[in-house]
Amino acid sequence: MSIIEAFPLSNVTLFLALLIPYGLAIYRKRRWFDVRAVRRTELLILGLTLILACAIVMKVVAMSASGSDLELRLFAILHLIALGHVPLLIKQSAGSLALVADHRTVTGGKDETMSSPEPLSKSGENLTWNDLIIEEKVKRDLFSVVALLKSPEDAYKYGIDTPKGILFQGPPGTGKTTIAKVVASAADLPFFVLRLDQITSQWFGQSEKNLTHFFETVKNSAPAVIFIDEVDSIGKARGSGAHAASDNLLNHLLQLIDGVIKVKGLYIIAATNRAELVDEALKRSGRLSKTIEIPLPDKLSRMKIFDLNLRKLPLDHGVNAERLASESSGMSGADIKEVCNQAGLNAFTRESSNGQRAYKITSADLEAALSEFKDLTSRKLA
Fold first, then answer.
1. Taking the domain 120-293, which CATH number applies?
2. Per residue in 227-269, pLDDT tens?
3. Quick one: pLDDT at residue 361?
4. Is 67 helix (H, G, I), strand (E, B) or coil?
5. Which residues contact 252 (CB under 8 A, 6 or more apart)?
């Protein structure tokens, strides 16, 4: 009893008493998907709280018996009130932890963790700059990125921090995924793709576990490139109407990125059609700090894309790629590929109705495919 009586209460001890419940709340928010760890921590904190609360009660009793000042006793009671938040927080978290526990029961105690990702480079896909038809300015920007990725030690000698994150932004169909593959291939790095449909789960906390598993696996293959397509689907700006679960997943992604960039040789390339939807925290310096605009192809690029796709087709005489490029303003590379494919279908239908097969795609087939595509696009925009 003499030890308890001699122990002084001060603003510092009150701050520590307030820090315990708030620290528990922060820990629970970050690790809420790990039921066992949260419950162990809660039991440990609850035990510590009970011990401290008993000591303070004994001190209040001793102070009352000795006739201490009322203000001192009230100050001691403030400590008890602060510690009283601990059991309230534990009670509040019981519901969400029960849901996670139910998930474990349904799945037989398994976590349903995603399978370990494999780099696409192992699948035999090896793209080069010849597979890209993009503007020279964009290509120069990409060359500078590849140079840094291939020789980060040279960048360090210039005092340059190698970019840890790159954001490709541009309209759909402009080849952002292909460009990312070429960058990884040119830098001779494994290329891992983070797919949202493989990460997300209906169960509480499982999405975060899958995300952690993905990043931990890729770390073992460093140096490597991580590609996140449609990053706005996982990195949508918080407070933009997204669900709380989406915000939690984004927070977890940010934490993992901050951890990954400390691993030498890991680089993140993300792509989006709507850069304005991506959370600013994801685009800040130290994460996706560099943005490269991937525009729609100009006339010269469209002509090259037509040439590339038309080489695969049995063409009749009179097909003019330059004229097609002039008539396809505003179309992406993917759109042009679709038009060429539709021209083949038009030729198949035409020759089927004639009963004669020359296996030739005419200029009229391509013009009709181009017109059909424009009509379809107009109807979608209407």
1. 3.40.50.300
2. 998 888 887 766 655 566 777 888 888 888 877 655 667 889 9
3. 95
4. coil
5. 208, 211, 212
If you ran DSSP here, which 8-state letter would residue 163 be given? P
User: Which tokens is 338 given?
Assistant: 């679709």
90 three-class SS: helix
Q: Residue 252 carries which side chain, given as an amino acid letter? A: H
HSE-CB for 236 with a 13 A CA cutoff: 13
Q: Which of 337, 338, 347, 330 is nearest to 306 (CA)?
A: 337
Entry pTM: 0.66
- The answer to whether 33 and 93 have CB atoms below 8 angstroms apart is no
Choose among 194, 210, 199, 317: nearest CA to 266.
194
Residue 153's H or E segment, with its range, is: helix 152-157
Q: Where in the chain is the domain with CATH 3.40.50.300?
A: 120-293
- Kindly list the strands in the beta sheet with 290-293, ordered across the sheet, starting from the edge strand earlier in the chain: 191-194, 224-228, 266-272, 165-169, 290-293
pLDDT tier at 270 (50, 70, 90 boundaries)? Answer: very high
8 A C-beta contact, residue 78 and residue 14: yes
CA distances from 319 to 197, 334, 366, 372 (A): 42, 20, 8, 18
Q: How many other β-carbons are positioned within 10 Å of the β-carbon of residue 327?
A: 14
Rounded to whole angstroms, the Cα distance separating 279 from 257 reads 14
Residue 304 CA to its chain's centroid (Å): 33
Detail the DSSP E strand segments found in 92-185: 165-169
As annotated, the residues of the chain forming the CATH 1.10.8.60 domain(s) are 299-381
* CATH 1.20.1300.10, domain 299-381, yes or no: no
Cα separation, 140 vs 161, whole angstroms: 19
Integer Cα distance of 273 and 181 in angstroms: 18
| Residues 6 or more apart in contact with residue 351 via CB below 8 angstroms | 357, 358, 359
Q: Which two tokens stand for residue 199?
A: 């990460």
362: tokens are 């005419």
